[in-house]
Amino acid sequence: MPVPPAHTNLVQMILTLKLSGLAFEINSAAAMKLPDDPQGVNSAALKKITFMDVIHYGLSYMGVLTGPYYRYRTYWDSLHRPFSYYVDPWPLTLYKLKQATVLSILFLLMNYTFPTEYTVTEEYANRSLLYRWFYTYPVFATFRLRLFSGIILSECACQMAGLGAYPTKCETAPGLGPRNYKEFEEICTDEEKITQEQFDFETIHNMNIWQVETCHLVRSCMKYWNSCIQYWMGIYIYKRFPFKPLRMIMTLTLSALWHGYAVGYYVCICSVPFYLLIEDLLIKFHNQHEKDSIVRLENLDVYSMGNETILYGLFGCSVSITRFSTNITILCKSVLHWSY
Of 3, 26, 95, 200, which is most buried by a Cβ count within 10 Å? Predict the structure, then answer.
C-alpha cells in the first residue's frame, strides 16, 4: 500500500481528541444530576446529536490539521449562538499574522543555521562536549518556532470563522470555553446586552508564547504549552484515572502514544514525571530558605539554566529526530546522557 501523506497523521491526531472528547461530553451530560449546572455540562448542544453532526464536527476545517482542540459545545455555539455576528476578529488576527510572519522567518533562518540532522553526524560527534551540549538548544528553538507558526495560523483560521468567541465576563479558558456558562446563556437571550459585551478568543488560544519562553519550571511550561490539548489530557485522562499516584505518568505516557509510536516521543515525554519529582523537591528546598538569601536565589537560577539547556534542548532534539531510534541513541551518547 502507498505511504499516506504526512498531514493525514495530523488529522488522525485531532480526530482522536475530538471524537473521544465528544464521547466524554455526552457521558458527562447524561450523568449530570445536579439542578444547578454553572458550567453548562448538560447544555443544549448535547441534547440531540446526529451522525452528520459528528462528521461535521470531526472534519471541520477549523483546526483539522494543527488544532486547537475545542469541545463539541464550542463548535455548536459558533453555529447557533449570535456572538460571531458581533465580534470583529480581524484586529487580533492581524496581530497574530504579524507574529506568524516574524516567527516563520526566524524558523527558516534557524533551520538553515542549525539543522537538526547535524546532531547525528560524525562531525558533530567530534566536536567539543560544550559545543554538542549547547547546540541542542538552538535546535529545539527551531522546533518551537515551527510549532508556534503553525499553531498561530490555525488560531487565525478559527478566529476568522467566529469559533471560540465568548464574552470575557464568562471567564473563558483554553479548551473549556466559558466557566460561567449560566451567565453566558443569559447574555445570549438579550441582544442589547450582547452589543455591550467585550469578547475574546481565549477558548481557542492554544499557545501562550511569551509565557512558554519566559517560565523556568517544567510544570509551568506544561500549563502554557498547547493549552487546549493540555485541557483534554487533564480533564479526560489525568482527573479520571483512578489511581492518583500514577496519574501524571499515565497521562504523559498516553500523550506520547497519541503523538505516535516513534521512540523520540517516549524519550522526551515519558521522562517529564521524573523531572517534575526533582523540581518539586527543589522548590520545597528553595522555600525552606529565607527570602532573598543567596542559597534561595542561586538554587532556582541554576535549576532554570539546567532546564533550558539540558531538558528543553536535548529532549527537543529527541522529538525532532523522533523517527530514528538509532539517531536518538547517537545524540544521547554525544552529550554523555547529561539529561538523565
Answer: 200
Residue with C-alpha cell 517534575?
Answer: 276
**Best-predicted range by mean pLDDT (12-16, 28-32, 288-292):** 12-16
3-state SS, 41-92, equals CCCHHHCCCCHHHHHHHHCCCCCCCCCCCCCHHHHHHHHHCCHHHCCCCHHH
For 206, counting Cβ atoms within 10 Å of its Cβ (0-12 exposed, 13-18 middle, 19+ buried), the class is buried
Collapse the DSSP code of 199 into the 3-class scheme (helix H, G, I; strand E, B; otherwise coil) and give the result: strand
**What is the distance between the terminal CA atoms of the chain, rounded to a whole angstrom?**
40
Residue 226 falls in the annotated catalytic set: yes
The residue from 208, 216, 259, 286 that is catalytic is 259
Q: Does residue 200 sit in helix, strand or coil? A: strand
H/E element holding 332? helix 325-334
pTM of the model: 0.86
Task: State CA 66 to chain mean position distance.
Answer: 10
- Say if residue 65's pLDDT is above 80: yes
DSSP-assigned states of every residue in 160-192: HTTTT-EEGGG-EETTTEES-HHHHHHHHT-HH
Catalytic residue chosen out of the listed positions 42, 206, 226, 327: 226
Please choose, from the candidates 208, 228, 229, the residue with its C-alpha nearest in 3D space to the C-alpha of residue 220: 208
307 catalytic residue (yes or no): no
